[in-house]
Amino acid sequence: MSNYEPNVTTAPADDYAAGTAAELRMQRESQSTVKTVTSLAMLTALTYVAMILSKMLPQVSGFLQMDVKDTVVCIGGFLFGPLSAAIISIVVALVEMFTVSDTGIIGLIMNVLATCAFCCTASFVYKKLRTRKGAVLGLLLGTVVLTMVMLLWNYLITPIYMHMDRSVVAAMLPTVFLPFNLVKGGLNTALILILYKPVVTALRKARLAPERESAQSGGRFDAGFLLFSFALLVTFAVLVLMLAGKI
Q1: How large is the C-alpha radius of gyration of the chain?
Q2: In CATH, what class is 37-243?
Q3: Which residues neighbour 28 within 8 Å (Cβ) at sequence distance 6 or greater?
Q4: d(Cα 160, Cα 182) in Å, to the nearest integer?
Q5: Which residues does 123 contact at the CB level (< 8 Å), separation at least 6?
Q6: Per-residue DSSP letters for the chain?
Q7: pTM
Q8: How far apart are CA 189 and CA 183, in angstroms?
Q9: Using CA atoms, how far apart are residues 232 and 75, in angstroms rounded to an integer?
Q10: Whole-number Å distance between alpha carbons of 182 and 17
Q11: Residue 152 and residue 87: Cα distance in Å, rounded?
Q12: Tens of each residue's pLDDT in the chain, 247 residues
């Protein structure tokens, strides 16, 4: 007669271990989701504040408002991806329309188009190439896309919004809208290059941003690059004043 007895505890033990692992994984995913939502909510609030502060900047041609809120949106996009940048831009544009804007649905459309063109493009490139070079390349490409998109939509929408003949708006494309969007993209690019590291470092210390992946670090943020970013900021700040006729 055989003395073999089947081990009846193995399967339940394995099931328990698997269940515990799955539960821990779900808890980690839930905590990660909460942190992401918290970070996006905070970035959305900061974007709204940046939009309000931008109202103090001089206007160009009496109706084009320089805006630095794209700086915050793009930092969010660099951290969490282009979809997050799009969500922040849409939410802030909606809140702006119902609180401080007098441009209605047209202003909302133009705000979302401009911010998404710049921030989603830059975030997409950075998602593929998570280095300093990728960030700069993404921001430059974002500025180009912003300019092209807004040239088209200003040609289509500005005559309706400003009650101008389309021929007048067409004449303004190379002299007003082109330099305005290039300078706007350049100003936000300079601010992002200066602010990205301190903002992200603070978020990571608060455990509200994903940790940097070592294989994608892209080198340190050295003093030379920081000085270059400040020089870029001063250059575009002067260009803003020139476009606004202040100097």
Answers
A1: 24
A2: mainly alpha
A3: none
A4: 23
A5: 74, 77, 78, 81, 82, 84, 85, 138
A6: -------TTHHHHHHHHHHHHHHHHHHHHHHHHHHHHHHHHHHHHHHHHHHHHHTTSPEETTTEEP--HHHHHHHHHHHH-HHHHHHHHHHHHHHHHHHT-SSHHHHHHHHHHHHHHHHHHHHHHHHHS-SHHHHHHHHHHHHHHHHHHHHHHHHHHHHHHHT--HHHHHHHIIIIIHHHHHHHHHHHHHHHHHHHHHHHHHHHHTT-SPPPPGGG------HHHHHHHHHHHHHHHHHHHHHTT--
A7: 0.84
A8: 10
A9: 18
A10: 58
A11: 23
A12: 455 555 555 555 555 555 565 555 666 666 667 878 888 999 999 999 999 999 888 888 888 889 999 999 999 999 999 999 999 999 999 999 999 988 889 999 999 999 999 999 999 999 999 998 999 999 999 999 999 999 999 999 999 888 889 999 999 999 999 999 999 999 999 999 999 989 888 888 887 777 765 434 444 557 888 888 999 999 999 999 898 888 8
Q: Which two tokens stand for residue 215?
A: 């294989």
- Cβ atoms of 5 and 49 within 8 Å: the answer is no
Token look-up 């209605």 returns: 104
Q: Which residues pair with 128 in a beta bridge?
A: none
> Would the CA dihedral through 167, 170, 176, 180 be positive or negative?
positive
In which residue are the tokens 């500005």 written?
158
Size of the chain, expressed as the number of residues it contains: 247
The residue among 9, 107, 5 whose CA lies nearest residue 63 is 107
Q: Are 97 and 107 in contact (CB under 8 A)?
A: yes
